[in-house]
Amino acid sequence: MTAISLGIPTVPTRLAERRKSRQIQVGTVAVGGDAPVSVQSMTTTRTSDIGATLQQIAELTASGCQIVRVACPTQDDADALAVIARKSSIPVIADIHFQPKYVFAAIDAGCAAVRVNPGNIKQFDDKVKEIAKAASDARTPIRIGVNAGSLDARLLKKYGRATPEALVESALWEASLFEEHGFRDIKISVKHNDPVIMVEAYRQLAAQCDYPLHLGVTEAGPAFQGTIKSAVAFGALLSQGIGDTIRVSLSAPPAEEIKVGMQILESLNLRQRRLEIVSCPSCGRAQVDVYKLAEEVTAGLDGMTVPLRVAVMGCVVNGPGEAREADLGVASGNGKGQIFVKGEVIKTVPESKIVETLIEEALKIAEQMEKDGVASGEPSVAIAG
Ligand code: SF4
């Protein structure tokens, strides 16, 4: 039967179809093709300190990290890779600069992938045949990771600086060396610290190859600036379907990178939304301290793993509307809060009881969601005023 349009516009859930990329397998995580966009980070410990590195990987895993990269600048680090790769519960990628011999060590150690940087691993070019064979035999993918700060000197001379064209040419040149040996188990990144150049580089790259792309704004800066830069750049690309795995680079603990990365994906509906707090910015009409309320509710629900949406609104203008749209919400006024569950007012409580009531109701809804087998994630909370 043909559906009759009643003129009601449909609401898109995604902004664009994903670009069709080849799929590679990074350990247990598929990257590219129709695999969900994954979130990754990098440890900050000395890799040779196996205990500290595994501890940080465990923290990253707990925060939702799906793939982790470890630096490998010395033989001691290379020697640690086998234990780390075996004991980590998420795939481990070895990050290799300058020393081709560590690429072989990482493959032998059972790393899920190896990252090489064409800009500072030039001796590597005449070893591509051997590396392609070793990687192919072990089914280890290679990430060609071009970085503006270490662009191949030949291209720097040709383009004068790290332009999008230079970054892309560097990556595709390196890929072509592997392709000559029939190796295409590759993903690519072309990172720059300027989101405008980075976005343009990835756009050009996406149009010129079908390799899965690892998105990153390199050296994005401290947490606030880096979060904004990454959200803007990743948003511009992911909203066009470009990007298969992401790494937010912050001068902050790596678990923060995961939080930001996951929030970016959730905001674009590229990942199951978890706890979502819809809270108003407050204004002269607010009859309750919205900031405090939103913070207390967020803190109280920290760690929830179901997709709960909680609305915290400061007054009755938008409050009831937003609160009704959420799984749970409060609309405040006259020293009281109307508590909504699934669109129905279930009770009105004094202002002093709003937080505890919301948390109590959220836990009940979360329990029911878990019983009903709602995909794990975190709940979403909206607070209106
Ligand atoms: S919900 Fe009310 S308090 Fe909050 S911003 Fe809107 S009008 Fe202001």
TrEMBL record:
Pathway: Isoprenoid biosynthesis; isopentenyl diphosphate biosynthesis via DXP pathway; isopentenyl diphosphate from 1-deoxy-D-xylulose 5-phosphate: step 5/6. Its EC number is 1.17.7.3. Binds 1 [4Fe-4S] cluster. GO terms for molecular function: 4-hydroxy-3-methylbut-2-en-1-yl diphosphate synthase activity (ferredoxin). Keywords: 4Fe-4S, Iron, Iron-sulfur, Isoprene biosynthesis, Metal-binding, Oxidoreductase. Residues 276-361 form the IspG C-terminal domain. It catalyses: (2E)-4-hydroxy-3-methylbut-2-enyl diphosphate + oxidized [flavodoxin] + H2O + 2 H(+) = 2-C-methyl-D-erythritol 2,4-cyclic diphosphate + reduced [flavodoxin]. The keyword Transport does not apply. [4Fe-4S] cluster binds at C280, C283, C315, E322. InterPro entries: Dihydropteroate_synth-like_sf (IPR011005), IspG_bac (IPR016425), IspG_bac-typ (IPR004588), IspG_C (IPR058579), IspG_TIM (IPR058578), NO2/SO3_Rdtase_4Fe4S_sf (IPR045854). Its cofactor is [4Fe-4S] cluster. Residues 21-261 form the IspG TIM-barrel domain. Pfam families: GcpE, GcpE_C. Belongs to the IspG family. NCBIfam families: ispG_gcpE, PRK00366.1. Converts 2C-methyl-D-erythritol 2,4-cyclodiphosphate (ME-2,4cPP) into 1-hydroxy-2-methyl-2-(E)-butenyl 4-diphosphate. This is 4-hydroxy-3-methylbut-2-en-1-yl diphosphate synthase (flavodoxin). The lineage of its organism: Bacteria, Bacillati, Actinomycetota, Actinomycetes, Kitasatosporales.
